[in-house]
């Protein structure tokens, strides 16, 4: 499968968040071409500011593997991770992060401009299906205004 195929899976998770009235961010964790974790934003549902898609997907992957490190895995997420999620990804030692839309307001790059918040071995790729990912977010916020 390609990065685009995996991002479509993350978009399905984001659509679940959208349907639940959550900010539509979805994430999956892939290892050896197998999805080992899925998550979507559940901040409102769980009344937990840390219940971001990335955190939920990471937890599912840790539980699946029985490990706290994911050096062979790749996280696909529809929106650029925030600084909190970047910290969790750092500690997971994840091998790769692939995101769709850039988040200029809340993404890690707004704060961490010169130093990457990710583990030194983590490969970061942005812009995969960025229009589809951004359009889902725009639709969500347009409905609420």
Q: How does this model look, in words?
A:
The protein is of the alpha/beta class and 145 residues long. It contains six helices and five strands. Strands 2-1-3-4-5 form a five-stranded mixed sheet. Strand 4, helix 5 (108-111) and strand 5 form a beta-alpha-beta unit. Helix 1 packs parallel to helix 6. The longest helix is centred in the first third of the chain and has 17 residues, at 3-19. It is globular, with a radius of gyration of 14 Å. The model has no long low-confidence stretch (mean pLDDT 93).
Backbone structural class = alpha/beta
- End-to-end Cα distance, whole Å, is 37 Å
Average pLDDT score: 93
Strand content: 15-25%
Shape: globular
Could you give a short account of the major beta sheet? 5 strands, mixed
* Proportion of residues in helical segments: 40-55%
Cα Rg: 14 Å
- Please trace the helix and strand order, writing H or E for each element: HEEHHEHEHEH
Determine the number of helices (DSSP H or I, runs of at least 4 residues). 6
Number of strands: 5
If strands are numbered along the chain, what order do they take across the biggest sheet?
2-1-3-4-5
Provide the low-confidence segments as ranges.
none
